[in-house]
Automatic annotation (TrEMBL):
Residues 1-23 form the signal peptide. This is Alpha-L-rhamnosidase six-hairpin glycosidase domain-containing protein. The lineage of its organism: Bacteria, Pseudomonadati, Bacteroidota, Sphingobacteriia, Sphingobacteriales. GO terms for biological process: carbohydrate metabolic process. InterPro entries: 6-hairpin_glycosidase_sf, 6hp_glycosidase-like_sf. It comes from Sphingobacterium detergens. Keywords: Signal.
Length: 663
C-alpha cells in the first residue's frame, strides 16, 4: 500500500504541475486595485462568457464577449415575483434581450459595429469598445438593488476631430405575458430608453443615455427611474460587503476571489411576499429555498459577514421549514418554492432534516442572539426526533437519496446524510448548553459519539486502493462526498481520503469529479473538500490546488465566481457555492467552529509560504472583531482584536484548537 500511495503521490504532483501550467496559460483576466478584474481583448481573440447578477426584485444572466471580432451582449432577465402558471420551482418570468438586434446606433447615417477593447467586473459589468467610426462606446450593466430592473448605462465618446451626428433607433419590443398563465394578472416587460435625445457630438465630447429593462404587472403605474441613483446604491451595496469580513493574505488572487464570492453569496436574495428568500439563481431557482443550498451551505456563513439581508433571509428560511413540522414525523420538504406558497419533495428525504438541523444549529451559535436561537430550537429538536426514527440497527441513518437527488447512486444509507447528522449533533449539543438544556446537550454529545463510531464502522473501507469510505452499501468506486466526514470533524481515515480526492480517479483541472470514471463535476463537492483539507491540517498539500482553483474561477475562461456544475446547467453561477468558497476560508484555513453565543474554537493552518493571514471586521457572535494569524520566527501566534480595544494573544500549537471567548 505504501508503494502504491507513493506512486500516486508522484502522479498527483505531476498532474498538479500540469494543472498549474494550464492555469498560467488560461488566465484571461487580470487583477486591478479595488477588487476589480479586467479582460483586455487581444487582436483576433474570440471568447464568450456569462455572469449572473441580482437584486431584491430581479436577476439577470448577461452573455458577453467577442464573436467574430464584434461585441456580444445579450441578457436573460428574471423577475422572481412575477409568477407564471404552473406556479412551481421554475415559474419566475424570464425574458431575453438581444442588443445587437434591438438597439441600433448610427453615426452620420451608418450603423455602428462595436469591437470590444476590454471588459471589467467589480459588482457590475463594464465594456469598452471602439467602433467602425471615431465613436467609442462605454457600457455599464448592473441590477437595481431593490427594484425590478436591470440598467445599462451607455456612454458615447467622440474621439475624432469632426462633429458626429448620432441617431438611436429603438427596436426593442414589449413583452406581454399571457394573463391566463400569469398568477397576478398580465405582466409587461420592456426596455425603456432614458436621456436618448443625443445631440451632435463635438470632438472629444461625450454623452450618456440609459436603457432600463423593466418588468411589472400591467396594472402598476409607470415609475420614473434614476439610473445614476440606482448605480450609486449598487456601488454602496458592493462597498458595504467589501468593508466587512475582509480577508488579507499575501495571495491577492485568493483575497479578491473571496471579495467577489461575498457579492454573489449575498446579492441573490429576493424580497418575496413570503419574506426575504435566498435563492440559488441560474435562471431556474428563485423566490424559493432548499435544505442544502440555504440551510446547509449559505446560512451558516451569513453571521460572519453580518449582512442584514443575509441574516434575515437565513432566519426566514428556517421559519418556512418549521411550518412543515408535524406530529407524524413526515419529512419536511426539500424545497419551499413560489414565494412560500408551494413546495418540492420530488427526491423524498435527501437527508434534509440533517441539513436543516446542522445549518440551524451552526447559524444560531454564530449569530449569537439567544432569542433567535430559542425560536429555532423547536425546529432543530424536531429534526433530531425525525432522524432517530430513521436509525438502523447499524447505528446509522437511512434517507431516500442525497442532495444529488438521484443523479448518482446513493443507496438507502449514505455517507452524506450521516456525516451532516454528526455535525448537527455536535453543534446542537453546544447550542443546547447555551440555552440551559444540559440534559439534551449531554444526550446529543452521546449520540454524536455513537454516530461517529458507526460511520467509521459502517462506511470505512478500502475503495480503489485507498483507505477511505464507501458512499453506500455496495459502492465500489470513489465518490466526491467522501470529503464530508473531514468537514464535520471526523478525522479517521482522513489521510487515505485526501489521497483519494487528489488522485487521478477524482481530481481534474475543473476540480473533483462526482465519482470515479465520470465526467461530471460539482463545485460544492470541491469546496467542501478544500475545507476538509485545511481543517485536517493538510494545508501544504492542498494550498497549490486551492490557489489554482481560485485563479481559474476568478481569472480564467469562466469568471468570477464558483459554479454549480458541468455539464448540468453549463456552470451556472449559483449563489450558495460562493458562500461555500468563503467558508473554505473561515472554517477551513482559520478553522473557526462556533461553540457558544460569544465563544468559538479556532485551529488555524497558516501556510508555510505565508507570514500572516487576517480576517478583519468579523461580525459573528453579535460582535465585531479581527483575527490575525502571524508567524514570528518559528512560532505562530493568534491575535484577536475586539471592538472595545481588548486584545487576546495566544501561541498556536500544532493540532491544538484554541478556545476564544469574546467580551
Amino acid at each position: 500500500m505504501k508503494t502504491k500511495l507513493y506512486y500516486w503521490s508522484l502522479v498527483a504532483i505531476s498532474l498538479l504541475q500540469g494543472s498549474l501550467s494550464f492555469a498560467q496559460n488560461s488566465k484571461k483576466w487580470t487583477l486591478l486595485k479595488g477588487n476589480k478584474i479586467e479582460w483586455k481583448v487581444r487582436a483576433g481573440e474570440n471568447h464568450e462568457d456569462h455572469i449572473e447578477m441580482a437584486g431584491l426584485q430581479t436577476a439577470a444572466v448577461v452573455y458577453y464577449g467577442v464573436r467574430n471580432g464584434r461585441l456580444l451582449l445579450d441578457k436573460k432577465i428574471v423577475f422572481p415575483m412575477l409568477r407564471t402558471i404552473p406556479n412551481n420551482t421554475h415559474a419566475s418570468l424570464t425574458v431575453p434581450f438581444q442588443d445587437n438586434k434591438s438597439l441600433l446606433i448610427k453615426v452620420d447615417g451608418v450603423g455602428v459595429d462595436e469591437y470590444p477593447l476590454s471588459f471589467g467586473l467589480d459588482g457590475k459589468l463594464s465594456v469598452y469598445s471602439k467602433t467602425n467610426s471615431p465613436l467609442e462606446i462605454q457600457r455599464t450593466l448592473f441590477p437595481a438593488v431593490d427594484k425590478p430592473v436591470l440598467i445599462e448605462q451607455v456612454k458615447l465618446v467622440n474621439t475624432g476631430s469632426k462633429p458626429l451626428q448620432i441617431d438611436l433607433i429603438n427596436k426593442y419590443s414589449k413583452f406581454y405575458s399571457d394573463p391566463e398563465k400569469s398568477v397576478y394578472g398580465q405582466y409587461v416587460v420592456q426596455a425603456l430608453l432614458r436621456d436618448s435625445l443625443v445631440p451632435k457630438l463635438e470632438p472629444l465630447q461625450s454623452y450618456q443615455f440609459n436603457i432600463v429593462y423593466e418588468g411589472k404587472k400591467i396594472t402598476e403605474p409607470a415609475y420614473q427611474y434614476s439610473p445614476s441613483y440606482e448605480l450609486g446604491k449598487r456601488e454602496d451595496f458592493v462597498k458595504g460587503l467589501a468593508g466587512d469580513l475582509i480577508l488579507e493574505t499575501p495571495n491577492d488572487t485568493i483575497n479578491t476571489a473571496f471579495a467577489f464570492a461575498k457579492i454573489r453569496a449575498t446579492e441573490s436574495i429576493y424580497d418575496t411576499k413570503g419574506g426575504l428568500m435566498h435563492g440559488p439563481g441560474g435562471l431556474s431557482y428563485y423566490a424559493a429555498i432548499w435544505a442544502n443550498d440555504q440551510a446547509e451551505y449559505a446560512n451558516p456563513f451569513f453571521p460572519f459577514l453580518g449582512n442584514r439581508n443575509g441574516n434575515e433571509s437565513a432566519i426566514n428560511s428556517f421559519r418556512h421549514f418549521a411550518r412543515f413540522m408535524n406530529s407524524d414525523y413526515k419529512p419536511i420538504p426539500s424545497s419551499i418554492v413560489a414565494e412560500g406558497d408551494s413546495y418540492w419533495n420530488g427526491a423524498k428525504d435527501r437527508g434534509d432534516m440533517a441539513m436543516i438541523a446542522y445549518g440551524a444549529s451552526r447559524y444560531a451559535l454564530a449569530l449569537g442572539k439567544k432569542d433567535i436561537a430559542t425560536e429555532l430550537w423547536p425546529l432543530i429538536h424536531w429534526c433530531f426526533e425525525y432522524l432517530e426514527r430513521q436509525k438502523t440497527d447499524e447505528g446509522v441513518y437511512r434517507s431516500d437519496s442525497d442532495e444529488l437527488e438521484g443523479r448518482a447512486p446513493a443507496g438507502k444509507i449514505n455517507l452524506s446524510t450521516n456525516s451532516i447528522a454528526y455535525g448537527a449533533y455536535r453543534s446542537a449539543a453546544d447550542l443546547a448548553r447555551e440555552l440551559g438544556k444540559d440534559d439534551l446537550s449531554k444526550l446529543y454529545l452521546q449520540r454524536a459519539g455513537e454516530l461517529r463510531s458507526a460511520i467509521v464502522r459502517y462506511f470505512g473501507t478500502d475503495v480503489q486502493g485507498y483507505s477511505t469510505y464507501r458512499y453506500y452499501d455496495g459502492n465500489s468506486i470513489l465518490r466526491a462526498w467522501i470529503c464530508l466526514p473531514m468537514t464535520m470533524g471526523i478525522t479517521e481515515r482522513s489521510a487515505g481520503t485526501i489521497d483519494a480526492l487528489l488522485s487521478k480517479y477524482l481530481w481534474t483541472n475543473n476540480g473533483i469529479l462526482t465519482q470515479s470514471g465520470d465526467k461530471v463535476f460539482w463545485d460544492r463537492a470541491t469546496l467542501y473538500a478544500f475545507k476538509g483539507f485545511f481543517m485536517t491540517g493538510a494545508t501544504e498539500r492542498a494550498l497549490p490546488y486551492f490557489k489554482y482553483y481560485s485563479s481559474m474561477r476568478l481569472l480564467g475562461d469562466h469568471v468570477p465566481y464558483p459554479v454549480e456544475a458541468w455539464p448540468e446547467g453549463g456552470q451556472r453561477h449559483l449563489s450558495a457555492e460562493s458562500a461555500l468558497y468563503c467558508r473554505v476560508i473561515t472554517e477551513g484555513l482559520f478553522h473557526i467552529v462556533p461553540t457558544g453565543f460569544r465563544k468559538f474554537s479556532i485551529n488555524p493552518s497558516l501556510p508555510k509560504e505565508w507570514k500572516y493571514m487576517r480576517l478583519r471586521r468579523i461580525r459573528a457572535f453579535d460582535r465585531v472583531f479581527d483575527l490575525e494569524v502571524v508567524r514570528r520566527g518559528k512560532q505562530e501566534f493568534l491575535v484577536v482584536k475586539q471592538q472595545d480595544g481588548t486584545i487576546i494573544q495566544k501561541i498556536i500549537l500544532k493540532n491544538q484548537a484554541i478556545s476564544i471567548t469574546l467580551n
